[in-house]
Each structure stands twice: as structure tokens, then as C-alpha cells.
Specification:
By secondary structure, this protein is an alpha+beta fold. The chain has helices at about 5-15, 30-45, 55-70, 90-100, 150-155; strands spanning about 25, 45-50, 75-80, 80-85, 105-110, 120-125, 130-135, 140. The chain has a domain at about 5-90: YhbY-like (Translation Initiation Factor IF3). It contains five helices and eight strands.
Length: about 160
Amino acid sequence: MLKLTPAERSALRAEAHGLNPVVIIGEAGLTPAVLKEIDASLNAHGLIKVRVFGDDREARVAIYDTICEQLNAAAVQHIGKLLVVYRPKQDAAKETSERRGKGLREVTIVKPSRTGTKKPSVTKVMLKGNERVTAGGSIKRAKPRQTSTKKTLSSRG
């Protein structure tokens, strides 16, 4: 089980405040499938909320301890039927997110027909790192950021 300092736990509680529950544990309890889903969510997000249905507080505490022990996660907060669990993301996930935005990527653009009665048009397009697809389905390039003349003048003097 992962241990957190009080300062880390407080920061994680603040970060988890706006989150919605990702996994819901029902009447069947903590099944292997539910445990696998919690593990996948921790790999993807790092910090998740789990909702446990049931009125037995001791059962919820037992489920919380089991999740933290089996998945090597840290118990952040347990309020009522909500459990907040944290585990640092895997390094492989960080590497893929750092590479994002560089090079070419394939995007599928789906445009509905003008009348709405025909099939939508589907096109696959290769985008460069500085391009994005707008809501209308057109491709736009990112404009270079404007630099302030005041900042450049004040940094010279």
C-alpha cells in the first residue's frame, strides 16, 4: 500500500474535489472485473473516485483497504459512499503524452449532409503537429504567438 504525507493527501483531496466517480461498485461487491476496471482507471488518470452502493460502513472500509492493498494505491479520502484513490501514473503513459502533438497524426472528419437525409461524409486526413480540426470540420493551423514589444524592450535594458 502506498503511503502519503498529510500535505500530499491534502493536495490530492483538493484536486479530487471536482472529479466525478469513475467506477461504481454495486451489490455484487468488489469482483475481479471491478478491480480490473479500477486498475485501468488508475493507470489512465492516477487519481479517481469510486462510488460504493450499500449501507454497511464496515464493508465499504474493507473494500477500500482491499483496493489499496491489491492495486498498490494510496487511500486519499473516504466520505460516505465515495472513495478517493491515488496511484502515480506509469512512466509509459507519461512518455506517450509527451510525444503528443509532434509529427503526423491521422484524424477522421465526419460531416453531416446539408439536408440531413443523406449519409454523412467521412474523410481521413493526416494532420501536422500545429494543425487542428475545428467544430465545422475544417483544418486550421496554429498561429505563431505574438510577442509584446514592451516585453522585448524592457528585457534589453
